[in-house]
Amino acid sequence: MTHARQGRATAALLVALVAGLAACTSTSDGTGRTGPPSPTVSFDPAASSRLFPPAAAPPGKTPVVVLVPGGGWTSADPAGLTGLATWLSQRGAAVVTVTYRTSSDGAYFPVPAQDVACDVADAVARSRRSGVDVGEVVIVGHSAGAQLAAVVALTPGSFGSGCAEPAVAPDRLVGLAGPYDVAHLGALASDLLGPGRHTAAEIAAANPVALAPQRPQLPVLLIHGTADTTVPAASTEQLAAALTAAGHPVTTDYPNGVGHQSVYSAAVAGPLIADWLGLTG
User: Fold this and answer.
1) How far is it, in rounded angstroms, from Cα 232 to Cα 1?
2) Is residue 197 very low, low, confident or very high in pLDDT (cuts 50, 70, 90)?
3) 3-state SS, one letter per residue, for 55-123
4) How far is the C-alpha of 93 from the C-alpha of 84, rounded, in Å?
5) How far apart are CA 133 and CA 231, in angstroms?
6) pTM, entire model
7) Is 47 helix (H, G, I), strand (E, B) or coil?
8) Contact (Cβ atoms closer than 8 angstroms) between residue 113 and residue 49
9) Exposed, middle or buried, 101 (CB in 10 Å: 0-12/13-18/19+)?
10) Among residues 201, 183, 275, which one has the least CA distance to residue 238?
11) Which of 25, 69, 123, 253 is the most exposed place for a label (fewest CB within 10 A)?
12) Mean pLDDT throughout 212-230?
């Protein structure tokens, strides 16, 4: 692809992202701040997560699946993931739905990623306390939650300190319709990174595409519906290409006719994730 065509593709992706995510987010006021303010609320993963125990103990160890919701970095309600959590738990996984602080709480990156890292640590500890023989730890994120899940899975050492439970590096990553290229979010970046100008280093630290060379042994499953009008499938194609070039084992699936909200349904994501994890229950 020529540089001109690459530029046009990037511009088109940015326009589509801004138009789509604007429906589920709001931009900040651009105060010229040079660093993110402190969150206005505290966060306790143990108080905000929900464990779905495996319906039956599988042979060998049990995968722990952590489901991270989207919400345009302004909200993070895990209620919509209940169906997928139930479906996967019925097939032998221990599943935990989680949340994190967002710009609505005065929290900007890296705080949401730190919360997600602590969610993963708490999910593993909670599963063990419930009697689960923990096997692989799988982090699954939707939309903005996919961006955060990817950053945490690729660079877990950057976010796990300060958690109440021992830090855990995810063994696998699943991204569902994520807006991954933070460098081209435009005005929407203020909901993730905070209002004002952002340095190249700040943007790169939050950008899964830039972080693709990290942890090349990490297997990744990326799912994006062909009918998604909120985040274009080109976002997933871009990350898949970067991860593949870096040596990651990458599996992609683009379910036909599936939109941004239906991609995380049990009917769509459930069988794809279960097959990738080898769940047979």
Assistant:
1) 19
2) confident
3) CCCCCCCEEEEEEECCCCCCCCCHHHHHHHHHHHHCCCCEEEECCCCCHHHCCCCCHHHHHHHHHHHHH
4) 11
5) 37
6) 0.89
7) helix
8) no
9) buried
10) 183
11) 253
12) 98
Model confidence band, residue 59 (pLDDT cutoffs 50, 70, 90): confident
Q: How far is Cα 255 from Cα 233, in angstroms, rounded to an integer?
A: 11
**Residues 74, 101: contact at Cβ < 8 Å?**
no
Going across the sheet that includes 134-142, the strands are 50-52, 94-97, 62-68, 134-142, 172-176, 220-223, 250-253
Q: Give 150-197 as a DSSP string.
A: HHHHH-GGGT-TT-SS-----SEEEEES----GGG-GGGHHHHH-SS-
Which residues, at least 6 apart from 187, have a Cβ–Cβ distance to it below 8 Å?
Answer: 18, 27
Are 205 and 150 in contact by the 8 Å Cβ rule? The answer is no
Gyration radius of the chain over CA positions: 18
